[in-house]
Amino acid sequence: MMEPRQSIDWDDEAQTVPIGHAKLGAYSIRYDCRLVEEAVSRTVKGYSPAERQQFHQQREAIYAERDPDARESRFQQLHAEWFVRVGLQAPLESLLSERAALIDATQDCLVVPARIRSDETADLYDCRLRQPDDVRDAGDAISQESARRLVVRIRSETLADPKALTALLQHELMHVTDMVDVKFGYELELPASDAGPSYDNILRDRYRAVWDSCIDGRLFRRRLVSVEARTRRLREFARAFPMLGARTEESFGRWFDEAQPTHAAIVAFVQEPRGPGESQGPVVDGRCPICRFPSPTLDPNPGRLSAGAVAALQHGHPAWTPEQGLCVQCGDLYEARSLDIAAANP
After folding, report:
1. 313-334 burial string, b = 16+ CB within 10 Å, else e?
2. What is this structure's pTM?
3. pLDDT tens for residues 129-177?
4. CA distance 128 to 136
5. 276 and 265 in contact (C-beta within 8 Å)?
6. Of the candidates 294, 297, 293, the residue with the CA atom closest to the CA atom of residue 325
7. Which residues have CB under 8 Å from 245's CB, separation 6+?
């Protein structure tokens, strides 16, 4: 969620189809036509024999249409009708109907294909960037703030599986709900560090781990996810914050149990996981003081270094002290060098 938004060619809206959404009033949800067709095709085998026969007969009849554009339009209409008939629109429609703040903050919703599982997300896009200046004026009913589009990226296999789709959307839509919540105070970009892009990526990974933990914690308390979700998020949290050591479970629990997280609080934590004034694991500029490569954490146990390794380090880096720490790789390297020196000088 903290990464730059992918571009979407809004001209492709001609290839989308509106799907019925009785629960949402005038709010519009449009689905990519190819996505609808693929999802319906995946569910055909689950139809009753009579339904399968009816579906295929209706499809075959469309081939008699000679005009290519009219034929394509009829195919799109057929797939949209069956999409609703078998209830594939229900998960998104139902979850959005429970999120009035999200509906109020966006002008519509667009559902487009995702290439791979990790691309399946929900996000906000500013539609004003692609609209002519004269489209909106001061008297427009849609405010500047609400001129945003909710975009859901999904694979056809997920769309055709209501249970999997519901689980995914519960998490993703809570992300977006946080983004439009003024109390959360979301900002698209994290404050830039002085350590460069590599360390900025580390901070984004930490932010994602904390935010995901907060979201699944709220879902867990509503009994919408199982205890396995907590276990999975704890593993992700531990990977993102190895410098916490024995305090990992306690820190994770704080965020998992947080009822009202804020962007500012998460940012402060990912920048100083151990608290203000304490060694955070990363060096001040995000780089190991020995190799100068970006390092998310220092060796959690620098005291393990032998006297020979410390001597070798200080020989090559006279200003270095053990209190400054070093990355695990440098610690292992100089430990190995000290053993080689000892072996060469018995």
Report:
1. beeeeeebeeebbbbbebbebb
2. 0.74
3. 444 444 444 445 444 444 789 999 999 999 999 999 999 999 999 999 9
4. 9
5. no
6. 297
7. 300
